[in-house]
Amino acid sequence: MRRQHPLIVAASCLTLLFLYLPLLGVAIFSVNDARRGLVWKGFTLKWYLKLFENDWILQAAWNTLLLAVVSTIVATLLGTILAIAMDRFPWRPRTSGVLDVILHIPVVIPDIILAAALVVAFGLLRMVSSIFEPGLLNMIIGHITFQIAFVALVVRSRLVAIGSEVEEAARDLFATNWYILRKVMLPLLMPGIIAGAMLAFTLSLDDFVISFFTAGPDSQTLPLFIFAAVRRGVTPQIHALSTLIMLVTVILVVATERFTRKHEAA
Amino acid sequence: MKTKLADSILTWYGELTTRGQLIRRGRLLLIPGMLWLMLFLVLPGLVLVAVSCITRGAYGQLEWTFTLENYKRLAGFSLFGWTPDYLMILWRSVVVAFVTTGVSVLLSYPLCFFIAGRPERSRYMWLTLVIIPFWTNMVIRAYAWFLILSPEMPFARIAAIFGFIPDGAPLYPNAFAVYLGMVSMFLPFVTLPLYASVERLDWSLVEAAQDLYASRVRVFTQAILPQTMPGLSVGIILTFIPAMGMFVVPDLLGGAKYMLVGNLIQQQFGPSRDWPFGAAISMGLMVLTMIGLQIYRRKGKEIEYV
């Protein structure tokens, strides 16, 4: 281990404090018994209990989960197929160049531009069909659009990493395409697909901008609910809700870490 | 992984086939994903460009008459002469993104060296500490600052004692609050890729520089900076571009006085219902993004030659 300058240690601790201080503040106030103001009045869990009686919040939680699950499933399927198609066929350099650029658009542009484009496109599509009214379906479509790119990029890097030797060996042994897909490719790709799906799922839970632009009156998600609550004037329930979401984040991060580390070791 | 291309006949994993056949098979697989991206990414993008060049009707509806009025308005020309208000907001967004990126880089270097210097087992723990805020919802983190800077909290009280703000006032909305929020929002975006480079740092080069009596500054610029450039440049691009389009933080902590381009776009699509102007501002942001990417790519090339 390298000896470290005390300044580096001090600066790092301050930086971490800077990241966590606000979050700790929220967590502390979620168990504070004061209705108004921020004075400490004793420990309580009543804000958490109230949370589960609040139909708005429960509905928003349900929407958030539904949105994340449905969009992740579709995006993982489409993204994985896309990654295989892009990596395992003899495309001309120009074709793969164009495909590459399209795939990178959602990763490099600010999400507010994608959101604006979707608002305008859905606005025009509404003239054709009423299913494009702002709401859950539009949000799902929006989420899938940016998730596909991330899933495809993760899965493709895994495809590159495993190489094509095993598949070639299987073909030399007269395996059919279908057999190779089921018995060779998918098992080898699975860690990449799961990692991509986890990324897509967290991106969906984390998204605010795309949802904010495409949501309808009945399709609030938790981030939208919190944003609206801050502007209306906050209740302690929001502290409890935020703390719960932070806890879920911690669990997701630790689970993902465990998963990827296990597979790196294997 | 590129499959080797013979001109007409190819061996695809041991199976003899023609290039045309493979391309046809590949297209079938490309269709679902690419169709989706065409329908909901490329096409909406083109529609956005088109809408930025048309007019808004009296009730916020779109009228398909071609005009450059929206761009003129963005550039500051109105009935009453030239005012650079919108250009100021664009410029401010660039400055905020630039400063946010700069401060994040300054804070990330010590943090990365600190983590890389921990014993192997505890490094994951420290790294996880950086990843958790990275994945915590942006609205929650922005709200957390909103809470910390509110009048009842010690920071606002201390500031009031020193006379920076009136008694009982919160520490927002102002530029300072926006910067606090922005840096805490984007810091992990720099730290995580930078750490990947720092962990692989070749310390013998650093020691060689020190043995040759290089000053601390030169050790950093000549031995450390070039080695960490790959991670650093990823971090910079991951921060700078989304920071320009950010709108949660300036909305909660900046107020109307410290508006950024993200808020301006949201305003046009929300309360103002002026989609063509909103589309034109989005195009403005798009141009800034492209300039940023271009500078980054050019720098990236220079670095490869070094």
UniProtKB/TrEMBL annotation, chain A:
TM regions (residue ranges): 7-31, 60-85, 97-124, 136-155, 188-214, 234-255
Domain of life: Bacteria
GO CC, alphabetical: plasma membrane
GO BP terms, alphabetized: transmembrane transport
Signal sequence bounds: none
Membrane topology label: Multi-pass membrane protein
Protein name: Polyamine transporter PotC
Subcellular location: Cell membrane
Record-linked InterPro entries: Bact_Polyamine_Transport (IPR051789), MetI-like (IPR000515), MetI-like_sf (IPR035906)
Keyword Iron: no
Gene, per the UniProt record: potC
A Pfam family: BPD_transp_1
Coiled-coil regions, chain positions: none
SUPFAM superfamilies associated with the record: MetI-like
Keywords: Cell membrane, Membrane, Transmembrane, Transmembrane helix, Transport
Keyword Metal-binding on entry: no
Main location: membrane
Domain spans labelled ABC transmembrane type-1: 61-256
Similarity comment: Belongs to the binding-protein-dependent transport system permease family. CysTW subfamily.
TrEMBL record, chain B:
Subcellular location, record wording: Cell membrane
Transmembrane domains' residue ranges: 28-51, 89-112, 124-148, 176-196, 232-255, 275-296
Membrane topology, as annotated: Multi-pass membrane protein
Record-annotated ABC transmembrane type-1 domain positions: 90-296
Keyword annotations from UniProtKB, A to Z: Cell membrane, Membrane, Transmembrane, Transmembrane helix, Transport
Gene Ontology cellular-component annotations: plasma membrane
Claim: Cell cycle is one of the keywords in the record: no
GO BP: transmembrane transport
Entries under SUPFAM superfamilies matching the protein: MetI-like
Chief location category: membrane
Family: Belongs to the binding-protein-dependent transport system permease family. CysTW subfamily.
Annotated protein name in UniProt: Spermidine/putrescine ABC transporter permease
Species per Swiss-Prot/TrEMBL record: Desulfosarcina ovata subsp. ovata
